Every structure is written in C-alpha cells, then in structure tokens.
Amino acid sequence: MKHIAVIDVGKTNAKLALVNAATLEEIDVRTRPNAVLTDGPYPHFDLDGHFAFFMEVLTEFQTAYGIDAISITTHGASATLIGQDGAALPMLDYEFSGPDSGEGYDALRPSFDATGSPRLPLGLNVGAQLHWLFEAHPDLRDQVKAIVTYPQYWGYRLTGELATDVTSLGCHTDLWEPQNGRFSVLVDSLRIADLMAPARKSSDVLGTITDNIAKATGIPSGTPVMVGIHDSNASLYPHLLGRKGAFSVVSTGTWVICMAMGGSAPRLDPARDTLMNVNALGQAVPTSRFMGGREFEIIRKGRDWQATGADRESVLGGIYLLPAVEPNTGPFAGRAASWVGTARAEGEELVALSYYLALMTHTCLDLIGAKGPTVIEGPFAKNTDFLAMLAAIRPDGVEVAASATGTSVGAAMLCIPDAKAPETTRVIPPEDSRLAAYAADWWRHLNR
User: Fold this and answer.
1) How many Å separate Cα 197 from the centre of its chain?
2) Given 3-state DSSP classes, what are the helix, strand and coil percentages for the chain, each rounded to the nearest 5?
3) Which stretches within 368-405 are classed as H helix?
4) How far is the CA of 54 from the CAs of 45, 48, 407, in angstroms?
5) From its phi and psi, is residue 20 left (phi > 0), alpha (psi between -120 and 50) or beta?
6) Stretch 72-90: mean pLDDT, rounded?
7) Calpha distance 384→441 (Å, rounded)
C-alpha cells in the first residue's frame, strides 16, 4: 500500500488529502468550503456538492499517484438519514436551533452517567436532532431506510454498505454507552433501533468501492474503504498506538477538543462542556472542548495580523481577553467575552487572543485530569504565542505533531495496522516568568 486517499470533512471545510503510507506525509490536499444550505426543510449541508468534488479529486489523485485505499474522517454531532430509495435526506446542521424546541426530549434522554454525554444546545446531541426531525416531520419515518453516522455516509456512497462507528456514536450523541460499548436505551425510546446501522470499529474495512465508483474515477475495483472515524479521534489515534503512560491530545480546528489518556479521571462536570468520548479502540476517553477556532475567527474578522515583540510586551503589561467569545459552548458557557486593558494595535489583539486560547485549553485539560505531555494537533500547532503560553503553564510539557492535518494522517493510519506514530517536537518553555504570572492574573480577573 503506497497511497491512501482521505475524505476529511470539518465543520468549516471539506478536504480530500492523499497520504503517503510509508512516511505518513500528505502529498496533496484539496479543499472546498463546507457551507450550510438553507434551500430545504431545515439548514443542511451540500452533500451532493461535496461528493461531486470528492469524485473529481479522487479521479485526479488516481491519475497522478494511484490510490490503494480510502479512509474517512468527519466532524461529530451529525447523522445522515438514508432514504428508502437509497438517496440521503438533507443532513441537518448541528448549529440549527430547531432541536432546542423538541418538546419532551429531556424526559427521554439517558443520564450523563450512562452516556457520558452532556445536554447540549442546538443540535449538538444527535439524539435531539433525530427526536426533532421525526416530531417536526411526521412523514419522515416512513421515508427512512437507515441512520448512519457521518463518516459512514461517505462510505455508503463509495461502497453501498451501511454502518455506524463507535467514535462517532460516542461523540455526545446520547445514543451510546461508552463504558458498556452498546447503544443506549434512547434508540428504543425514539423507536429507531431497527433503523440504526450496525456499530463497527473505525479500523474495520467497510467494503470495497462499487463498480460505478471504479469506472468513474479509474480507481481499481476491490479498493478497500475503511469504516471511518470522528475527526478528533483521528487526531488521537496515532498517539494512542504509539505512546505508553499518561498523555493528552488537543485537536484544534473549529473546535478545540482536549482528550486525556491515563490521567487522574476526575468526575466530569457536564455543565463545563466535559464529556466521555470513545476512541478507535472502543475505550472511553475523558474529553473537554470549546469552539476555539470559531472564537479565533470571530476576533480576527478576516484580518491578516502580524505580532511583534513590542506587541507581546504590551500584552504582558496587562491586556486580557476573558471568556467566552463563543458563549454557547466550553467551560465558561453563558458568560460574555470582555477585555481587561485596551489593545491599541492589531498585533496586541492577536497576542492576547492567542494567550486566551492557551488558557482556555489549559482549563479544559485540567477539567479532565490530563497528565503527561500534551500534544497539539492542527492549526494551533503553528501559533507560536499559543504554544509559548501553554508550554509555560503545563507542568508535563507540550509537544507539536509533525503533520499540519492530524485528522487526515490519523484516518490514513486506520489502513496501516503496523504504522508507527508520527514524530512530535517538544516546545521549549520560554524563559520568561511573566507568562505564568499573566496566566495567574487572567484567572484573578476571571474570578472577579
């Protein structure tokens, strides 16, 4: 096996990456926006547009490099309804407020102790999405042949096989019991037990590409397609295989997802946006998160910033951003963002924002009892101010993954049972005691 094509759909962008199976390097990456459409019964995603894009790029990758396997990773909190005619019904955007209005759902959902899934707003609980869909559209149930979690929708388009996967089911859906490895009682309460596709391991082979896909792309018949994985778990997977002892992984993107392995396992607080995820091996993983990438974009407003040493000096002198920029999620949900001190230049604002994101990440790691080194995956791994602050306050050190897109590499590794974990680089903590003092002051301002 030389080349693995990875379908990688985040909340902001849909990507197709080609990964070298020997080096775990991304040879080629193509993207398109993951826009929300409003031309239907509810806000939904452009599944057909994405599929046409994937088919085009798969054809190009096959022509230029050859493809030996296909793997899939997507954002969580999403499920797709497969119609009786085999076509997918519109996939609801989890940021749509409709599921909040679903009367009676709270009486149906299992306890946090059973599912590790907190009650979340909008459609962030897949169970709430399904409850609202079937309540708001009474004729919908008769149209549905199967329910699949999101990675397996793309697998269905490629192979015709139906499945769900344990990492997507374990992503605050209310539908899964992480400690018992089975569907929760909610599937019976919602009367969907017969519709839920079978739960499978992410590293299983879902099937091989159909003859139609082979003809359209030139990819050889018999090319395997993996079951697929939730994107944050794709970031965790390489380190899960290659590390011993306690460690944590921070997957950054639209969401910042903090996952702890072998930590102190405190009692999770659902009110602080902590939850129990499920990794690719089926193990329960204490997890916390906030919408850090979204918060970065809210503050940045599309500006192309550069920070200078003078900007850092000004911020360390007393400029703080307090949570929560995105107030619906995270450990400080419900609070309104505020500034202490005044940023006089864009560079100062950028530094204060980067420190804020590091302090929010540190908070999330503490909430899940994270111990051992912290590995940063994704875009924040390139933010030097974020890394400097985090390295200054995390007692067991911070490391950066070599790959810029840990999700794609992790998904590719599902195809390579004997793959070695990608290398990481340790972040050297700055010799500046003011960073730790700044963190302490941030907490004091927050507690006021």
Assistant:
1) 22
2) 35, 25, 40
3) 384-393
4) 15, 10, 17
5) beta
6) 94
7) 21
